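Structure Section — protein described below
Tokens — whole-number codes for backbone shape
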Amino acid sequence: MRAYSILKEKIVNCEYAPGSMLNEAQLASSLGFSRTPIREAISILEMEGFLIIVPKKGILVTDILLSDVVQIFQTRMEIEAVVLKLAAPNIPKEEIHSWINTFSSEESSVKVGYQMDTDMHLSIVNHCNNSYIIDMMKKVFDKNMRVIITSTENKEHMQEARKEHIEILQCLLDGEVDLASAKMRTHVAGCRNAALEFFYST
């Protein structure tokens, strides 16, 4: 469903900020759809926890709670370290080299950098050969993107993350899977700490 995909992307990328109010008619007009597909998209996004329909007021983009941040990164820390071990034998070396080159290249914009970060993590997940884990982690990363964009939009953290990605990928190339897994856990913990620092300070 195209209306759903477009609306979800705008929410995930915080074009519609957490805590903001939306209007069905305005969404239909601005996105170029009739009210029916917009209404259907809103219904699905409400079930997925991105929106809340508030009677007589409009559609609320769900806010990001501290408990959300804690649970998202708790999931990532525990699952990604294990997933990396499952995926390691299946990741083509050419793909690992490609990611190392990507993270070694010239700095990108913050928004592109966050998308690149997410794409790399999901590329590892996609090689774990477990459809249940893949589906779950895609949902986690949709919620994770909102947290990252909201909380850690700074170049210093992004540069550190790029270095950590390269270290993880190099360990995979060298066949040091346990070390790569440990570094992944440390990397996600660092992302969690940066996000929590922001949410505790606001």
